[in-house]
């Protein structure tokens, strides 16, 4: 098994190296063959690992593969921890990645950076696998940074497009903020437990309860709370939670397959995964859990609202991703880690499906992304239409679809939670259901139904996308429908995760839910009688009414409540605020620092001063090397003299 | 002061004097002869320490062979030695100062106590039937075999190096190559050119 | 004849040298490839034999305790042989193109390797001295091998005279130690000094020994020969001098200072501090003012030697293993750098000036990349191996409470980074003086690429070498 685990991340890495360095020699077809081969192997191995883990006795693989170095008693190593949480993530990552690889053949068909693109996405798969399979914080951080790097590269894939460059810079900077928190968290773990290994950290964690540290003189902070919040700040950056969410919508500048793979299905869920992995730490700090809960619920509600006013097809899906990430975070805050991972899994499939469907529409429309210029595409693109419908139904949580199970479980879990902020969170997630349904169907109706709002030229070329695009859509649509119903019993209420996730007894809301659980069908029937279902239905209906039959309602609302629209359109002003205060302010400060500190002090006095004096000295010292033998011999004799002096003085 | 000590002092002084002579005299032949003197004196000091074999070998090999060869070379080449000496007086004060410092340090270290005669008892004299040569041979071929072999390798390398550095084929020297001379064909030497007749 | 089998590697090497020496006489001028292939074969077989006969754990002696095979000697010998294989590979085309005595180059170089192996395995002062002389003699001859070149002869002359002076000092020191302890064996010396503290002082021969070792290392202020010899010698010989002998020099320092005179640690620590500080300062600073790449690398060697000495002077196992790691990886780095110069300078052009590297990137991007990795590694930038080596040494020095030394070393490494970067700038951003691409035979290309890749490989996975280094001193 060990070899299998080592090969799983290495296979995509080999593909990435082959396509990256020898892409020109290999040619397009061979490049995609080799990368798809690599990811295919990884997928196969992940499946083997999954089944081995399901059929086995639940024993956990936790071994160090290679010790990188030992410094001051701290070991830095590469190791794998493969438990049931890991295999779920591995399977999700490799399967979505495989679909995206295949889809890319069609989507990037005419792009000059074809091989580069394949190399990047394979590299991403490698990094993501390293992240989820890590058994220590150092490797986690490596994977964390590596996926961030690939994401940066891919957002700016079309590097000649200024908006893409702006977006990737933004993603990079915002993620730096999160990573800084994350690094502080890791440092705190290292400082208080003396180890980077998960197992040892978790074993040492209970002793930290009640310990305090002084962040500012005279204040006492719980060590665990500070550590957990720092780690969570890292998750906020990667998983785009308010207020570090601003990069995700802009990341849609990258090619659509990337939006599906990285910015919907896998990388952005790394934060969720990380918190679930750290459950033994988070469980010990209720303050941190409340923090997580409130941030998550704010994200879930507010980002959904923004989704209503967006007109770019990909941005709508992006905001819906933000809002769904909020749901997962809420689940984490309510200690329903399994529910978060469950939603992560179902979301990965239906959101990848929605993105790829959006991509398919974009191809059909010749890279037109504005939904106001679409409409009535149903008859032109039937496969895309039906798969989108499935994705949308899964997203809004239509009973029986996989999204329904996971979302309902989260809402119920929040309902059952008792920690601070859970009441507020419950309201947020309930409203979120209505909003999700509203914006999802707004987009769906605007794109596929109603009047055709595009020109004659587009219509002539409009047709269903090629097989490499539609096949992944269909393959992704299947799990979007059935996955939830099949796995809910085991993942949420069975003891599937075992020791991989730890939940303190007083927080265990899922166990409470589990006592009322009688099979998936009953869950659906029960779902029909709860508020979320009615809210979703109301959202769908109102979207249908407003955007298909009575557009004047939207007009009226727009006139009456213009300020609300402006607020949403400006995304609550986060971007402007960042732009003015952080970007502008730091530019001004940097300018001053540069002109005074850098140019005068450092450059003038220290760097150039040192360089000049060293240069002078070196010119002088060079003259000592005269080339005369007796000078050399004389220098040696002087040296001997010095050695003897030292000898005399030390004895 | 017994007789042996007296002999030691006399020959040591002559030895040091001869050694100084080697590096100060201007005439290379004289320098070589000083060196011969130094060898003789050290041979006698070895003799005092009952190392007869080494003493005789020193005289035979160094005085008898190496130095004679050396003298031949010096005399035959007739080197003009004056320019090599030019810097001598100029650097003498600095050199003397440093050498003086080192001597002071060494005397300081050695004299103080660590090399006093008490620490090193006089070895017991051997009987008349004790063969120095035999003992040396035994030590060399048993205890120090490895070192002996390595020393032999060093000599081998020295020979290779000497030959590699001195044996040269001068490009300007003309050799006869009989094989080529015999195998030569007329085409190699003679070129028949057909030319239009100039009218 | 106890345990004579332990020296099978050395014995085989000696026999092979004789075979190559004689065989070379009978092959015609244009089939000189023979000597090269035989030499490489010899090195490989010697490597295998060394591994086969080395004891699994602990140490074993032969020849009445004159010859020792312990983990350190096994490791050092292996790397000396590996590096020598690379050296021969890179030198071959250079020698062929210039018709510098082919057979002699290999015989002399091989006898130098034999000398190094004897040094590494020596457990008496006499063996050590003889091994050292064997190496030195081979080197003197190698430097002078290109007789038509005046610079080469001048360099050889300087090297020889100064080397004789250093050998004299070393021998004087050895005789002092022998006089004080009555033994040539390091273990006996150590025992004697341990039991009798009054004779600790009697080893004032130590100062002379340190002079001898410092000269062989090329540490300041006994470094004067290094730039002249590096510049004057044929590049293939420079390549040889700059690589494997550093490992051997490390080994003899360990034998002398740690195996023999560890009780005098306080004394030699002070001396090595002076040597290492001077080396790092002088090496890095004067390198800035160089216009010749070979001289620049010579001064860079001096500064690296300072680091190697720093690990030894720390006086703990951590320092010794760090220093060993440094010596081995530096030998690999230096080998690669001169290998590139050799590969570039083949077609009748000698690479000497820094500006000769201009635009290497346009002429051969792979070599430019390899050279960049090597230089970056010398500068000590992560993730290359040079960074980890420096880190390990500095760590050991800090453990030994010599923080100021570590700080100084870091400051001057930063100074040093400048001249490495300058070369990188020349290679990548300047226009080449000639546009003709640099090309060389396939095996050299592969060798250099592996060499460059190894810098990163060992930088990311230093444990591959470090584990063995730590184990060698863990006893």
Kindly describe this structure.
The complex is a heterotrimer of chains A (about 650), B (about 200) and C (about 475). Chain A has about 650 residues and is mainly α. Helices cover about 75% and strands about 5% of the residues of chain A. Chain A is globular. By secondary structure, chain B is mainly alpha-helical. Chain C has one domain. Chain C is about 75% helix and about 0% strand. Chain C contains 20 helices and two strands. Chain C has a two-stranded antiparallel ribbon with strand order 1-2. In chain C, helix 3 packs antiparallel against helix 11 and helix 4 packs parallel to helix 11. Chain C starts with 7 loop residues before the first helix and ends with a helix. The mean pLDDT of chain C is about 90. Classes of the chains: A mainly alpha (about 650), B mainly alpha (about 200), C mainly alpha (about 475). Chains A and C meet through strand 1, helix 26 and helix 27 of A and helix 6, helix 8, helix 9 and helix 12 of C.
Key features of this structure:
heterotrimer, B: 199 residues, mainly alpha, C: 475 residues, two-stranded antiparallel ribbon, 20 helices, 76% helix, globular
Quaternary organisation of the protein chains: heterotrimer
CA-based gyration radius of chain C? 21 Å
In percent, how much strand structure appears in the residues of chain A? under 5%
Number of helices of chain A: 27
Please tally the β strands of chain C and state the result.
2
Shape of chain A: globular
Query: What are the low-pLDDT stretches of chain C, counting only 5+ consecutive residues below 50?
Result: none
> Biggest β-sheet of chain C, characterized?
2 strands, antiparallel
Strand content of chain C: under 5%
